[in-house]
Write a structure and sequence with these properties.
Length: about 290
């Protein structure tokens, strides 16, 4: 199985290294760490059996709560917790049902051991209105603070109030997706938001595309941040072309793009680093390449 844990820390490299070391001590394999200063966020891509990933995810919850204080956290990405999102993904040899069971065990343990409220999402959701992570995270931690404990917003595990410094955590099970960002050579916030809106599947964009626009002060550009949730229908190259064409129609060029974490090989077939204006080597972003290293 795979676990793609999102942590609300992308600037304190010492803290990130300490959390990574804690994961490695659990027996899970930490394949990749992607940290971003503007988002102030890190993505840990881990693989292992159910027991290893359970230990790793629960350990991360403890470590994140000890090192991340959301009361002073600043970053462009919406978040609800120090350990923000913990999805489990079936790989070859495992099933979605096993990932759901794992999500339930991890969610219960995190809440019991840390007193951090846990919301289940995706295939692990206990309520149909919580299958979407975006619904749980709407408005960020401020939005959740206003809803939690009210009718329909009691956590699946843990107290009906946010942890004072660590917030809450969303734990789920889902199919593979690709987190993919495209940076545009513009600082026009309105244009960036329009492109993100037009790129969404819900607005006629490619199948399975969710998109937000962020102004990255550190890079001086607009970023279209996407989740490609239907990897059988929409590849990284298709998402790039869609955003690139929308930008070009408005006189804007693509500066660069990046795959956050790792992507299944089938999602980048036919693509090149040059064609995507990718930061770094495309081969370094392929999940199977890391799995084959041992």
């Amino acid at each position: 199985m795979e676990c793609v844990a999102n942590l609300s820390e992308g600037r304190d490299m010492a803290a990130i290294s300490e959390m990574a070391a804690a994961v490695r001590r659990t027996g899970a394999r930490l394949l990749d760490i992607h940290s971003d200063c503007d988002h102030n966020r890190s993505v840990f891509t881990m693989v292992g059996n159910a027991s290893e990933l359970e230990r790793a995810a629960v350990r991360l919850a403890h470590e994140a709560a000890a090192r991340i204080d959301l009361r002073v956290h600043r970053g462009v990405h919406p978040r609800i917790g120090a350990l923000d999102v913990v999805p489990f993904v079936p790989l070859a040899g495992s099933t979605m049902e096993e990932c759901i069971d794992l999500a339930l065990r991890v969610g219960e343990r995190i809440a019991r051991e840390t007193c951090i409220p846990v919301f289940l999402y995706g295939h692990a959701a206990r309520r149909p209105d919580r299958t979407s992570l975006a619904v749980i995270r709407r408005g960020g931690i401020e939005g959740l603070a206003a809803r939690i404990g009210r009718d329909g917003w009691v956590p699946d595990f843990g107290p009906p109030t946010l942890h004072s410094s660590a917030g809450a955590v969303a734990v789920g099970a889902r199919p593979p997706l690709v987190a993919y960002n495209v940076c545009l050579e513009t600082m026009d916030v309105a244009l960036g938001r329009w492109i993100a809106m037009a790129a969404r599947a819900s607005n006629g964009g490619p199948a399975g595309v969710q998109a937000l626009a962020f102004f990255l002060e550190g890079r001086g550009c607009m970023q279209i941040s996407m989740n490609l949730t239907d990897v059988a229908a929409t590849s990284v190259a298709v998402a790039f072309s869609w955003v690139s064409d929308l930008a070009a129609a408005n006189g804007v060029e693509v500066a660069s793009s990046e795959i956050v974490g790792l992507a299944p090989r089938r999602t980048v077939i036919g693509a090149t680093a040059e064609g995507l204006r990718l930061d770094g080597r495309l081969a370094d972003r392929i999940l199977e390449a890391h799995l084959e290293e041992t």
